[in-house]
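Quick check before the chapter quiz. The format below is the same one you will see on the exam, so make sure you can read both the input and the output lines.
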Amino acid sequence: MKIIYKFFKREIKWYIPIIGMLILVDLSQVVIPLFTKKAVDAITKNNTKLIIQYGLIILAVAAGIILIRYIYNYILRKLVLKLDFELKTSLFKQYVRMPKSYFEKQEIGDLMARVTNDTRAVRMFLIMGFLGGIDIILLGVTTFVMMFIMSAKLAVLVAAPLVLLVPLALNFGHKIHRYFKNVQSIFGEMTVRVREAISGIRVIKAFTRENFYLKLFESENEKYLRENMKLVKLDGFLEPAIDFLIYASLFILILYGGSLVIKNRISLGTLVAFSQYIGTLAWPMMAIGFTISLLQRARASLGRINEVLSAIPEVRDVKPITVGKLKGEIKIKNLTFRYPDANYSILKNITLDINPGELLGITGPTGSGKTTLIELIIRVYNPPEGTIFFSGYDIMKIPLKTLRGNIAYVPQEPFLFSDTIKENLTLGKKNATLNEINEALRIAAIKKTVDSLPNGLETVVGEKGITLSGGERQRIAIARAVLTKRPVMLFDDPLSAVDTDTEKEIIKNLKKYLKENKITAVINSQRISALSVADKVAVISRGRVIENGTPGQLFEEKGYYYHLYRKQILEGMRSDEKE
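Here is the expected output.
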């Protein structure tokens, strides 16, 4: 609840007049039955002048209530929407700050629910819960005081049934908190199922697994229904219980208050005023359960929001230093790395030197740690201090923004946003000229493809680039990296979905581009065509560098690289013979 306290403290200059207007409205609501009493008593005395006078006063007070309600509702909702905006922005900002490891442990649907459902629960409490809370305290108390002044005994008897609402509402509030927390958690799971099904719809249809995923969703949906029904049962019992107690108060008023009118101990106007006061008391009494329900939901949601906002990113600047201009020199010294939850090291004693302008090829069996090494260079994960150096600086001391601002990265699975090709290309360089974009497309061997599209660069590629083939997405990702012209480029198996002829063209273009711009590059690949043009090749197996040298040297050693070369050359010859 610290977020709400800070919000109230910050916006106190607005909440003081809001509370002032609420007090004025609540007091006006208490005054209306007094004039109703006088008007009814005037009726019994056949005093037309007083009837008109009190009627006009009631009308004026009601008009004033409507106007003031509009003003404070407008201000209050504007303030709360401002907080809602800030919460959503803070959550998104935190998601962007968090490292890859955080999202590997969290359900994406659940994280989305915190931005939507949980912020809505907080917003509802700060509007309706706040108004209800003020009315419970002010309207409820002042109404009872006015009733007590008119007839103490009648006021106590009429209010007695309503007192039972307090323990009832408190008991229900605890249960609502527990059930609502479960509902929010299950909603997150449901969102995950929907997101997975939509993202993987082509795979689902290809393997005719529609019914399987439908049953998975139905299972989560049934849980969501069951937990919501628990809330419905609570709400369904609470509201009729409140209504029953209000009617019980009316019964006592008619029975006992009517007898007092007959005995001339109170006037008919007092009886009518009491009936209005019971109606006025209905909202504060109902608001007890309503406000507690909103409070418990907001508490549960704020807890989930705080879980995200209070999370400390594992990959962050701890003691960053000021660095000069970074060149492309990368040195890796005795690097041993283990993932946080793993019981073994994925990389062991890795030592590599990459000079400015060099192209290092990395290859090796699947699962040997090649991708991990590339991700450590760009600090997707934190390497041990004193193991990776960029231009002589330990990358753990280089500010993250500076480090990543000097590295262009093409991941193993290229990601394109649901936007135009141009916007995807200029992600790392918004001020790129058309000539620069076209040159990057040419280097990635995709310019002809883009030019052939109806809208060219303005073609929208759909979510994750779904309208493009795997090879086209990879080439767009390569062009995006090339466009930045950063000192270091990291390619993680960037040509796996590209045909042989296109691959050769890209490799040729990249080699020339890297040399002309003196860019240091690391390329992880199983393709010999990509490795053979590298200045040096490192073979990693079971987390260790088992071969390291020029392609010619490794060929002479007749190790892993040699066998990979012969295998792919023989496969190429067989393919040519078949054709």
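If your answer matched, good. The chain has a mean pLDDT of 87.
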